[in-house]
Each structure stands twice: as structure tokens, then as C-alpha cells.
User: Fold this.
Amino acid sequence: MKWTRKHLLTIEELSAEEITMVLDTAASFKEVSTRTVKKAPALRGKTVVSLFMEPSTRTRVSFELAAKRLSADTLSITAQASSITKGETLKDTARNIEAMNTDFVILRHSTAGAPKFLAERLNASILNAGDGAHEHPTQALLDVFTIREKLGRVAGLNVTILGDILFSRVARSNIWALTKLGANVTLCGPTTLVPRVFEQMGVKVCYNLDEALKDADVINLLRIQHERQRKSLFPSIREYASLFGLNQERFKLTKPEVVIMHPGPINRGVEIASEIADCPRSVILEQVTNGLAVRMAALFLLNGVQGGGAVPAVEAAA
Ligand code: CP
Assistant:
């Protein structure tokens, strides 16, 4: 199969074969990061601009490092340090960036659909680094990569996503990726944050936490997305932690081989007890490591469509 997409905007639009192609390519690139010289030449001469209009630690650093490891020239712009604060529109900002012959724009934005908006107006390849509560495609790709690496497969696994599903782009992208790859997905959390409408995406909605935990092969915990909630949808953080936090007592109910995931940033003592975040079953930092390989793979595949040459990942990593 040949990669044909110029942009990476959503998981919804990807086929299972395309998702698997990113994962297989990422597996080749993971090895590059273990070498003494952690560089591959695939994006030499290309320019990658990260445009982050919302805060980020993991995604921004990971994309920038991925581009650098592929030998691209990289620039990073944040909302506070850009002329957007002087009234410039996103479209004008992006067109000015492109006027400097930029090949890739990585965009994080609070508005759902902002990456698609740019993809329809610029010649550069656009990578969605999270748009509102819509999608966070590379997070889902690194999550399924991590599951496949830890458990050897995704199909047939029981994956419980616990927390604020309603406002989570990570949840939406994960649901698409996991269901396309054949996992059984259960969503759990307060009724106000896990509406039954999600069942239309082919997942189970369960409000009984013990039931949602006991058969899970993977538990993916999500924080409360305060920045996107316009009103309080649960009484207090303390009550949320008590009713839905993964604490030691609830952890005892899970399968002994369960894999604990979290996209970060974690709120210790709220959605996850500190001891569980740091326990051997937690792969939270491995997710971050895998994010680098997945973002290298995404840039590499899009570059092939841009005329960067369809070099097999193993050769590009040589
Ligand atoms: N998981 C994630 O998107 O983290 P950041 O907000 O730090 O990028």
C-alpha cells in the first residue's frame, strides 16, 4: 500500500490500513532514537513550523524533535509570541509563514476544524496537533502504537477510556483508531461527561466504574478538561476523585496484566493516584517516547506525498 495523504487532520478519515502503515513506519523510526547519532536525512532541506495557539508540553516538543531528527529546519510559534495578539487572523498568520516556503505546518488550536481550514487554503502539509474537542490524531496513533507494542495486538482487546470524554479530543481520536483496529471500547465517567450519544461511534457506555475496570486489558485515563468546560458538570474535584479516580482500591479490581495509560498532563490524586501513575503497569512515559517515533513517521509519510521521495522507512532511518 502507498501513502497518498498530503495532510494528517483526523483519524476518522484514515483506514485501518493507513493507521497500520503509520504504526509500522513508526516502529522503524523508534530504533533511530536509540542510536548515538539520533538523526535520519529524510526531511533534509524541508522547513517545519509548529504553530501552537494553545499550551502544550508533549506534543510541541515531540513534533519539533521529530522534525529535527529527520534533519528538517524547524521553527516554533506560540500564540503569546505571535502577531495574533495584535489582531492578525489565523489565515493571515499561516499565509505569512507559508510565504517563507514552509513545507509543513503543525497546528494546535482551540477551534475544531482549524487544521482543515488551513489545509484548504495553504500549499503546505498540515498536521493536526489537537483542535478543540475534535481530534488529536497523533496522540491516538501513539496510543495504539503503545498498546500494540505492549500487548502484541489491538484487535479483540478491551480498552476502557475513563474520565472527561465529552470535552476530549484524545477520546474521539482514540475511539476512531481503536474501533477501526478492532478493539472493544468502553467509555466510563460521570453521566454529564459521557453522554450515551457516543454509542453511535460503536462503543459501550458504562456508568458502573467497577464493571468498566474489571475486564479491561487497557485503561486510558483522561483528565478533566477545565479549559473547555463552560459550566461545572460535576460537584467538585474531590467528589470526582472519590467517584471516578483510579485509586489503589479500584486498581485491585483490575486484571493483573492491565496496561495503564494517560495522554498527559496527569493530575495526581484526581483521575489517577500517584502510586498508580508511577507503578510498573503504567506506560505513561513510554507513550511519550513512542510519540516521537509516531510523529517522525507522520512527517516522513506526508513528505513522500509532497515529492520527498518514497524512501522506505528503514532506508530513510539508515
Ligand atoms: N497529550 C498532550 O497533548 O499533551 P500536551 O498538551 O502537553 O501536548
